[in-house]
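The instructor's notes for this session suggest beginning with a concrete chain rather than abstract definitions. Hand out the sequence below and ask the class to guess, before any prediction is shown, which regions might be ordered.
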Amino acid sequence: MSSLGGGQPGEGGLPPAAPEVEPADQAQVGTDEWVARVDERRAAQKGLSGVVVRGWERLPAPARLIVLLGPFAIFPFITNEGNLYRYGLLTLIYALLAMGLNVVVGFAGLLDLGYVAFFGFGAYLYGIMASGHSGHHLQAEIAIPIVVVSTALVGLLLGLTSWRLLGDYLAIVTLFFLQAFVIFVNNANGGLNDFSYPFVGKVDLTGGANGLDRIDPFNLFGYHITTTKGYYFFTLISITLLMTMLYFVNGSRTGRAWRALREDPLAAEVMSMPVNRLKLLAFMFGAAVAGFSGTIYGAVQSGAFPGDYDVGLLITIYAIVILGGLGSIGGVVIGALVVNGAPELLRSSSNARFLFYGVLLLALFLAMRPWYKPLLVLLGTVAFGFAVHGIASAVWSRGTAGHISGGGPLGRGLEHWVLLPSHTSSIAGWAYFALIVAALVLTLLRDWWRALALIPTLYLAAFVWENKLVEQVSGATRLIMLGTLLVVIMNVRPAGIFGTSRVEIV
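After discussion, reveal the predicted structure:
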């Protein structure tokens, strides 16, 4: 008899022992944990979030594109030039740049840490062909295709030198390529050193550390793009076309082969897929998109400067791709909106206050189940705050003597809820330390004990924010808030906003 049928009878004619039942929260042998918890995930999607997810999944691809990019098309008509550049154009450029990286990392699974070098290469090459610095003024419809093809060829060369490498080894080689590019553009000015090019001798090619200035605006078939709104719509149209192309590529044989390469290169090679050719194609495609993005950025900035293409930008683009979801086409747009928009909003203390309390509420209602538990915690925090403020008003008048400047209706309401001492330097510092300890304690508690501990912890977070962090909103607080926002989103959606959970059979 098979062991799956319950076993043989025991001695003395006793019936076989009952099979041991595994706990419901543990995956059975041969079943992946992600598959075993499918009922739990379905139950979690019965609320408002479930309605949104199911509605999104039922939308056809053109409708999803309109939902994602429609607000971007409206944005220039409801904002000023400065906000259009900071919140709009830079977000679109980051999204366009992240789409190219998503092909390399998200589709093909290649850890490319030299990607930003292609972005800088595109900006510098366009500036060499069309700028007052070089003295050449090639029109954009000719210069842009040259940049795209040239950058793709550079990506091919990088891929050829590292096509047998994977993982950390590939990352090291490509990171070296990025550093080599930065060193080159810092020193290829021909006038301050002995660098000499073949056949042409000493030429100020990149402007050195001062950068390559006076890059021409786009001149497309006689139409000059000279305004932020013009570059905004040009970039938006480019993103729309690229997203449409990637949608069809993703469903093609090449897209499926890239995903197979990402999951298991050895298995893909055994299945007779041209692994090396797929790697080179991914490198070339990503490099071409980065080079094209560089031409737009160079024209918008009217220059190309070495400090713009460093590891900091690389981390930003990787954050966008990971936040949006590896392999997700639309996710990079939302990722760029969060990563670029949140720090810009945090430049203003009033905007930062709304974002801070909004993130707290979002984390509270998304992380706690069932629905009434976060509601009870919220009501308990409000009541706790009014009680503390009332007691402090009676016994410690200095604790409520402070005021919130420029806070609007929210700030005026908070003055009657959160403690605002007249001198907060030492008190706020100790409260900051206590908040960190309280957050660590929360990780050790479970169920209703955690819910009860959340009430004073949330109030302590509000106290620290109003008395310490809001004063540094343009500096360290922006990084803290952005990091907190990313942690909250990635805890709610570990695979990214539009990412798909990967299934690994054990």
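Then share the key points. Residues 60-338 form a domain with the ABC transporter involved in vitamin B12 uptake, BtuC fold (CATH 1.10.3470). The first strand starts at residue 130 and ends at 131.
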